[in-house]
Automatic annotation (TrEMBL), chain A:
<feature type="transmembrane region" description="Helical">
    <location>
        <begin position="143"/>
        <end position="164"/>
    </location>
</feature>
<keyword id="KW-1003">Cell membrane</keyword>
<feature type="transmembrane region" description="Helical">
    <location>
        <begin position="6"/>
        <end position="32"/>
    </location>
</feature>
<feature type="transmembrane region" description="Helical">
    <location>
        <begin position="98"/>
        <end position="123"/>
    </location>
</feature>
<feature type="transmembrane region" description="Helical">
    <location>
        <begin position="506"/>
        <end position="533"/>
    </location>
</feature>
<feature type="transmembrane region" description="Helical">
    <location>
        <begin position="467"/>
        <end position="485"/>
    </location>
</feature>
<dbReference type="GO" id="GO:0015658">
    <property type="term" value="F:branched-chain amino acid transmembrane transporter activity"/>
</dbReference>
<feature type="transmembrane region" description="Helical">
    <location>
        <begin position="336"/>
        <end position="354"/>
    </location>
</feature>
<dbReference type="InterPro" id="IPR001851">
    <property type="entry name" value="ABC_transp_permease"/>
</dbReference>
From TrEMBL, chain B:
<dbReference type="InterPro" id="IPR051120">
    <property type="entry name" value="ABC_AA/LPS_Transport"/>
</dbReference>
<dbReference type="GO" id="GO:0016887">
    <property type="term" value="F:ATP hydrolysis activity"/>
</dbReference>
<keyword id="KW-0067">ATP-binding</keyword>
<dbReference type="GO" id="GO:0005524">
    <property type="term" value="F:ATP binding"/>
</dbReference>
<keyword id="KW-0813">Transport</keyword>
<dbReference type="InterPro" id="IPR027417">
    <property type="entry name" value="P-loop_NTPase"/>
</dbReference>
<dbReference type="GO" id="GO:0005886">
    <property type="term" value="C:plasma membrane"/>
</dbReference>
<dbReference type="InterPro" id="IPR003439">
    <property type="entry name" value="ABC_transporter-like_ATP-bd"/>
</dbReference>
<dbReference type="InterPro" id="IPR032823">
    <property type="entry name" value="BCA_ABC_TP_C"/>
</dbReference>
Length: 638, 252
């Protein structure tokens, strides 16, 4: 009979749920009104923690509880101002393109992390206990710290309820969250509501940061860990639903407290993700998500970018020139830069295959996970079964594709943000599997001592120049296959399908299978890239497959533009240049990447490729003029 | 041809469709009318698999197709249009029709994924059939125009052409005349009658009573989710329950 301390489980349950709820409700509130997921929510939380740390440093000798109280007021206020700034500068300009706003907030998240690293250092700060002491309740221990978290969360919820349901401004927020257009027609100032919501949401994140600051350590990356949990909570609860977020926070508080108390704390990420996937398989919009919007709303969006495309000959010449440049590259470069070149080629396979994934309309956050799966498959097939690298290379891709299909089945029913967030969670869970199941995957050390590919045609791949050419060949072959897919009937059908899924069903297209096809195909090439990656490194370690790596791939696609095959390549080139120029100050890299991404979303939404092709394209010879006046059309659409 | 039996759908406590049963026979133009909110579009969504039915069955050619996903229904030869304009806005008119020719595809999946010659020539063939269809709709000149640039009425007609490209035997049209001007209405009705003469069966939701009465062989009337009446246009125009549903009861 296991000795289970039920009271302790209950206490942990309450304090965990309080934290999850406080943090996730802010996210849900912002989504509800602005219809955008604020990825930087975790960084608002982190800034709350640093506010407490700064005040402690600035006020030595002042009683801790007083500093704590001051921080509870000053921290959220400061962060709320930042939130309003973010709303004005990022979310408001991108309000007609919520996905752009989301990507920009992803960039902002990296900028804020980098700023925190620059100002406060990478090392996490451990804060003194703010409210010392504890009480015993029925055999369980409740520290006053945790009691404060619980009480703080309850107080915030009550205040939020009062605001939303008892005040005029709160009613405006609820109206805007139900129907923005109708709210606008009722004379509600959406800009003001947006500012207010961002201020409240950011302040709630900061409050949880201050409350949790002394419970967990304050570090620049604490937001990333917290946002993972918040995403799981809002997905399971239903995006934009505050009651849903609370219910899911309670659910996960309970699960996590049971798991932790029973000694399975390290598996929490995996357990939570499995639960999320199960919930999504049955409720693709979360437990309390809104009823699906009316079915036959085929959106008709006029094309802003127009049909300007560089001629195919031009693209071919450029591609050949690029390939020739890459082929000659090792003759000119030093061994260090050959290594950079190999990684660039591996990244190139990743961004090209990532674009194939997103043509189906969902931005996956698990592409690096597919790289990791390919790398691990390579490591295990080599160390366990002793297969030849040449057999392993395609097999790794196949393993990644199979895993992709397995995650895709529950995840693919979701759309837009749900898809992004659930792949984010699933990717993290798979990475945790690599770390936690030591016996199988070697834990945090990974799989060491892999041998390079066997000699082929008398070429040794110990030699980096030869390895570069191997990577180049794999890259060109993958690129050609994916390009063919892109221009093929299936590829074009997938792109069209993502534009209007209802119509696609009505004309006999199996959207679900088409999406899985694109997802698995992308995963296959990412898996092959993983094999190259493992072969080059000579080891596989879970620490290589970071969120920042994923961010780089997404950033490449956003900066380059995803409308054409060539955009992501251009974007990757820019990012790699930034990276190499800042090689001596590598904490600045995410800062510049983030700033570039925000700049792109705000000022060149079509990406660099859009800019370039507008310059290269010959003017179309005949331009069809619409019969009706343009203004007239806008009026009927609005 | 299409038979529904006790079809029922609830939205929460609202009874959108309450045990509706009727049949559509091949080669006819069948009208489905009723005041707003009477469950006509819900009926479409249930039959074409866009919404699951709470109760009841849908039979297509004697085969039970209840609960099949939309693409399976479409592949069986049952096409539908949407109430508002629905097309692939970024594609040209011809590309829209070619995409919708999916049910005609015979080339192998691999050929289509790798852009092989067989897939390319098949696509060219589909492009030519699309042009022939556009000819019929008098839209041949617009084949290379982006769908989003078309005026609203033309987009509506494009929706019908898309549905016809899927090789259907029954086309369900959800208010095809709404948003068209008088000339376009007459043109579309002529085309539809021509299609019917070629052996196509049509199910028409429409509020334009004049067009319905002129075109339909049979009419089914829905009101608040229940089947109110069914019969020929003459019978329906004399049916007291229908008149009551449309005009309300006279206050004595």
């Amino acid at each position: 009979m296991l000795d289970i301390n039920v009271m302790q489980i209950v206490i942990n349950f309450l304090s965990l749920s309080a934290f999850y709820g406080l943090f996730a409700v802010g996210l849900a509130l912002i989504f509800g009104v602005m219809k955008v997921v604020n990825f930087a929510h975790g960084e608002f939380f982190m800034l709350g923690g640093y506010a407490l740390w700064l005040l402690l440093a600035a006020m030595p000798g002042v009683p801790l509880w007083l500093v704590f109280l001051i921080a509870l007021v000053a921290g959220p206020l400061a962060v709320a101002v930042l939130g309003m700034l973010v709303e004005r500068l990022i979310f408001e300009p991108t309000s007609d393109n919520v996905f752009g706003g989301f990507i920009a907030s992803l960039g902002l998240s990296y900028v804020l992390q980098a700023v925190a690293v620059l100002c406060f250092g990478v090392v996490s700060k451990s804060l003194p206990v703010m409210v010392p002491g504890q009480i015993q309740i029925g055999g369980g221990t409740l520290t006053y710290q945790r009691l404060v978290v619980i009480l703080g969360a309850v107080a915030m919820m009550v205040a939020l309820y009062y605001f939303l349901y008892r005040t005029r401004s709160g009613r405006a927020v609820r109206a805007a969250s139900q129907n923005r257009d109708a709210a606008l027609l009722q004379g509600i100032d959406l800009r003001r509501v947006g500012l207010m919501t961002m201020a409240i949401g950011a302040a709630m994140a900061a409050v949880s940061g201050v409350l949790m600051g002394s419970v967990i350590n304050v570090s620049p990356y604490m937001g990333l860990e917290a946002i993972w949990k918040a995403f799981i909570v809002v997905i399971v609860g239903g995006l934009g639903s505050i009651p849903g977020a609370i219910v899911a926070a309670l659910l996960f508080g309970l699960i996590d407290s049971i798991a932790t108390t029973l000694g399975y704390g390290q598996y929490v990420v995996i357990i939570d993700t499995v639960i999320m996937l199960v919930v999504l398989a049955f409720f693709p919009r979360g437990l309390l998500g809104r009823e699906a919007p009316p079915l036959d709303q085929g959106q008709v969006a006029a094309d802003d970018a127009g049909q300007v495309r560089p001629s195919r000959a031009m693209a071919g010449v450029l591609a050949l020139a690029g390939a020739a440049l890459l082929a000659g590259y090792p003759l000119l470069a030093s061994p260090y830069y050959i290594g950079v070149g190999i990684l660039f080629l591996i990244n190139l396979i990743l961004v090209i295959s990532y674009r194939t994934v997103i043509t189906m309309g969902g931005w996956s956050f698990a592409h690096i996970t597919m790289l990791a799966i390919g790398a691990y498959a390579t490591g295990m097939l080599q160390s366990r079964l002793g297969l030849s690298f040449w057999a392993i290379l395609p097999l790794s891709g196949l393993v990644a594709a199979v895993v992709a299909v397995a995650i895709a089945v529950p995840v693919m029913r979701t759309r837009q943000f749900y898809f992004f967030l659930s792949t984010f969670a699933a990717g993290e869970a798979i990475r945790q599997c690599f770390i936690q199941f030591r016996g199988v995957f070697g834990g945090i050390e990974g799989i060491p001592f892999l041998s390079p590919p066997e000699d082929l045609f008398g070429l040794s791949f110990m030699d980096t120049t030869n390895y570069f050419y191997l990577a180049l060949v794999v890259c060109v072959v993958s690129g050609c296959l994916l390009y063919l897919f892109d221009i093929s009937r299936t590829g074009r059908t997938i792109r069209a399908m993502s534009e209007n899924e209802n119509l696609s069903g009505a004309i006999g297209l199996d959207a679900f299978s088409l999406k899985i096809l694109a997802f698995a195909l992308g995963a296959f090439f990412a898996g092959c890239a993983g094999s190259l990656f493992a072969g080059y490194n000579g080891f596989v370690a879970p620490t290589d497959f970071t969120t920042q790596f994923m961010f780089k791939i997404i950033a490449a696609v956003v900066i380059g533009g995803n409308r054409s095959f060539w955009g992501p390549i251009l974007g990757l080139l820019v990012l790699t240049l930034i990276e190499e120029l800042l090689i001596d100050a590598n904490q600045l890299i995410p800062l510049f990447w983030g700033l570039t991404i925000i700049f792109t979303v705000l000022f060149i939404p079509a990406g660099l490729e859009g800019l370039v092709s507008r310059c290269l394209a010959r003017r179309p010879l005949r331009k069809w003029r619409p019969i009706s006046d343009r203004r007239d059309r806008d009026a009927t659409r609005a | 041809m299409l038979r529904v039996h006790d079809l029922t759908r609830r939205f929460g406590r609202l009874m959108a469709l309450d045990h509706v049963s009727f049949e559509i026979s091949a080669g006819t133009i069948h009208g489905l009318i009723g005041p707003n909110g009477s469950g006509k579009t819900t009926f479409f969504n249930l039959v074409t698999g866009f919404l699951p039915a709470n109760e009841g069955k849908v039979f297509w050619d004697g085969r039970d197709v209840t609960g099949l996903p939309p693409h399976r229904i479409s592949r069986l030869g049952l096409a539908r249009t949407f109430q508002n304009t629905s097309n692939y806005a970024r594609l040209t008119v011809r590309e829209n029709l070619v995409i919708a020719s999916r049910n005609h595809i015979e080339s192998s999946a691999l050929a289509r994924m790798l852009h092989l010659r067989s897939a390319r020539s098949e696509e060219a063939r589909h492009g030519r059939s699309a042009d022939a269809l556009l000819e019929r709709f008098g839209m041949r000149d617009l084949a290379d125009v982006q769908a989003a640039q078309l005026p609203g009425g033309t987009q509506k007609i494009l929706g019908v052409a898309i549905a016809l490209s899927t090789n259907p035997r029954l086309v369900m049209l959800d208010e095809p005349l709404a948003g068209l001007n008088t000339g376009e209405k007459a043109q579309l009705m002529t085309i539809l009658r021509g299609l019917c003469a070629d052996g196509l069966t049509l199910l028409l939701i429409e509020h334009d009573m004049k067009a319905i009465m002129q075109a339909c062989d049979r009419i089914t009337v829905l009101s608040y989710g229940t089947l109110l009446a069914e019969g020929t246009p003459e019978e329906i125009s004399r049916d007291p329950a229908t008149i009551k549903a449309y005009l309300g009861t006279e206050v004595a």
